[in-house]
């Protein structure tokens, strides 16, 4: 399976990290399956960068094989949603961007993609209305609603499936709203989707 991620997909988040989104096309990057962090296992802060940021995101699970998918039919290709944390080595990212180099090392490292369980879409409100939040040590830092996304999940699927075949079980991280920040040893991250606790784990 693969993890497809969208960067800079909410207004104001690009500003807070000093980057400029491209209006015409989503910003796409991948993480390998070795990036997965499941079952609310703790995130161990690596020692090779100074600042690791949390980014809470809606994550959609692909339910059938597809390529060159038209936006109108994209909704047929996912069936469940969960929450993820796109952990990012921010100081390394800033350096890579400045040097015009790819993002992989700052974004796709081991355990950089925390994911929750998934809820069937049939059990939830319409996709555009999905609300989620992330709290650090009980204090809410990020709130998002899917309708705020610059590129909807259907637009993302239409775009990425031009380049990558989508397979059952692939995951799409859809970008993070404003409010990102660094994690510290001892922090507890909790995230809810439509009021249901989805993530609850520690930083070590
Ligand atoms: Mg992200």
Average pLDDT, rounded to a whole number, is 96
**Uncertain runs:** none
* Proportion of residues in helical segments: 10-25%
Total beta-strand segments = 15
- List SSEs in N-to-C order: EHEEEEEEHHEEEEHEEEE
Count of DSSP H/I helices: 4
Structural class: mainly beta
State the oligomer: single chain
Describe the main β-sheet briefly. 8 strands, mixed
**Strand composition percent:** 25-35%
List the helices and strands and how they pair.
Blueprint: E1 3-7, H1 13-16, E2 27-31, E3 36-37, E4 52-54, E5 56-62, E6 78-86, E7 88-89, H2 90-98, H3 104-107, E8 113-115, E9 119-120, E10 131-136, E11 139-145, H4 153-160, E12 171-173, E13 181-182, E14 188-193, E15 196-202
Parallel strand pairs: 1-12, 3-8
Antiparallel strand pairs: 1-2, 4-7, 4-13, 5-6, 5-12, 6-8, 6-9, 10-11, 10-14, 14-15
Bound molecules: magnesium ion.
